[in-house]
Amino acid sequence: MSTDLWLVVGLGNPGPTYAGNRHNVGQMVLDALARDVPGTFVTHKSRAAVLDGRLGTLPSGAPGPRVVLAKPTSYMNLSGKPVAALMRFYGIEPERLVVVHDELDLPPETLRLKKGGGEGGHNGLKSISQAIGTRDYLRLRVGVGRPPGRMDAADYVLRDFPAAEREDLAVTLVDAADAVTDLITEGLLKAQTRWHAAR
């Protein structure tokens, strides 16, 4: 088992049709995070696009921690199999798995870090928990808010972020990438203290 490697998974649906959807905000965060990891995403046999590298530079000047950024190429509700396959391939335990996903129960631009707990009806999380046999992994919840009026939640998350929200979204994605970095480099409690107070 690897003792210094982290797996960061951004949830979403595959292909350009879904790329701008609220449901794909987890993969958008990974694209922002990838700016601090040398290299490019490549296809992995686990049914995911992965980027394996060092996350930034430590204050000492040494390379940052090793991370595998992964965007499953399965549909959201089948995310568990690629994640479980990546964990086996890289020898990663659940405590070093970080899943980034959209969250209806948080207002837009809100970030929340947690370990374990329920899935809140999120099919991607349900699939992962079932496939790896535990809920005790780390999550970054990225708020997308509740649908207006009587709009169905599934229809809402499968719509693109509207133009009026995209400027704020760009800031949120950078902040979310920084929150993942803090989680990995400083630990859950310090990262929660910083990011939960900020929002």
Automatic annotation (TrEMBL):
Specify the enzyme's EC class, one word.
hydrolase
The residues annotated as site (Discriminates between blocked and unblocked aminoacyl-tRNA) are 13
Q: Which residues bind tRNA?
A: 18, 75, 77, 123
Q: EC number(s) on record? A: 3.1.1.29
What Gene Ontology terms describe what this protein does at the molecular function level? peptidyl-tRNA hydrolase activity; tRNA binding
- Cellular localization per UniProt: Cytoplasm
Q: Where is the active site?
A: 23 (proton acceptor)
Q: Where is this site: Stabilizes the basic form of H active site to accept a proton?
A: 102
Q: What are the entry keywords?
A: Cytoplasm, Hydrolase, RNA-binding, tRNA-binding
Q: Which GO terms describe its biological process?
A: protein quality control for misfolded or incompletely synthesized proteins; rescue of stalled ribosome
Please give the chief subcellular localization of this protein.
cytoplasm
Provide the Gene Ontology terms for cellular component: cytoplasm
Which SUPFAM superfamilies would you find in this protein's record?
Peptidyl-tRNA hydrolase-like
Q: What does this protein do?
A: Catalyzes the release of premature peptidyl moieties from peptidyl-tRNA molecules trapped in stalled 50S ribosomal subunits, and thus maintains levels of free tRNAs and 50S ribosomes. Hydrolyzes ribosome-free peptidyl-tRNAs (with 1 or more amino acids incorporated), which drop off the ribosome during protein synthesis, or as a result of ribosome stalling.
NCBIfam families listed in its UniProt record: pth
Protein name as annotated: Peptidyl-tRNA hydrolase
Organism field: Ruania alba
Q: Which gene encodes it?
A: pth
